């Protein structure tokens, strides 16, 4: 992963802080606010599954670099850079969870915009998103950003529930993002 990619990021009342032990209880509270969502996530972060999941997030670097999402001084979710494709060329933004009360408010777009801007300033040329085909809300959100759906990886993984997941693959290229931003979209 490109040096300088995994650094604290901020815009107004939004901060993305590299995940550390100090975020544990705040993230536990945030993930506990929506027990039903974990049914369509590949990993469960609810209830008794939280601590092992959090420990795994801390241990997965350098392939997965997780941020705590902080809004008005409160941890409200998580997101990550995930190694994908050639180093210094491509990265995935994933492992995103946002507390339910912030969904549909434009908050996710602010997070992704901050990350996308930073990715392309760092010189990477491709950002990928992988979304469970059952998760229409997340698919719509990445398409609103200007991502292109490239296809579906059939039976790509087995989730913690035993569901065999089909995964939609989306991407945004650096020139597409700069053209979109220049057009004010």
Key terms for this structure?
5 helices; 8 strands
Brief characterization of the structure:
The chain is α+β, with helices and mostly antiparallel strands and 185 residues long. Helices cover 28% and strands 34% of the residues. The longest helix has 15 residues, at 107-121.
Describe the fold and architecture.
- The radius of gyration is 16 Å and the shape is globular.
- Helix content is about 30%, strand content about 35%.
- The protein has a single domain (about 10-180), classed as Gcn5-related N-acetyltransferase (GNAT) (Aminopeptidase), CATH 3.40.630.
- It has an eight-stranded mixed sheet with strand order 1-2-3-4-5-6-8-7, sandwiched between helices.
- It has five helices and eight strands; from the N terminus they run ββααβββαβαββα.
- The model has no long low-confidence stretch (mean pLDDT about 90).
- It is an alpha+beta fold.
- It has helices at about 25-30, 50-60, 105-120, 135-145, 175-180; strands at about 10, 15-20, 65-70, 75-85, 90-100, 125-130, 150-160, 165-175.
């Amino acid at each position: 992963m490109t040096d300088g990619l995994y650094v604290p990021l901020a815009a107004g009342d939004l901060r993305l802080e590299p995940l550390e032990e100090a975020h544990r209880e705040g993230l536990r509270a945030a993930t506990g606010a929506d027990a039903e969502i974990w049914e369509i996530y590949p990993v469960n972060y609810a209830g008794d599954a939280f601590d092992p999941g959090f420990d795994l997030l801390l241990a997965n670097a350098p392939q997965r670099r997780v941020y705590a999402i902080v809004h008005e001084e409160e941890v409200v979710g998580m997101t990550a850079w995930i190694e994908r494709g050639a180093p210094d060329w491509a990265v995935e933004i994933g492992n995103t969870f946002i507390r339910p009360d912030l969904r549909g408010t434009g908050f996710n777009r602010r997070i992704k915009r901050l990350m996308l801007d930073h990715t392309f300033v760092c010189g990477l040329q491709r950002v990928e998103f992988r979304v469970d085909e059952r998760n229409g809300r997340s698919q719509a959100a990445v398409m609103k950003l200007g991502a292109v759906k490239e296809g579906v990886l059939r039976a790509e993984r087995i989730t913690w529930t035993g569901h065999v997941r089909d995964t939609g693959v989306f991407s945004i290229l650096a020139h597409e993002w700069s053209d979109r931003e220049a057009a004010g979209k």
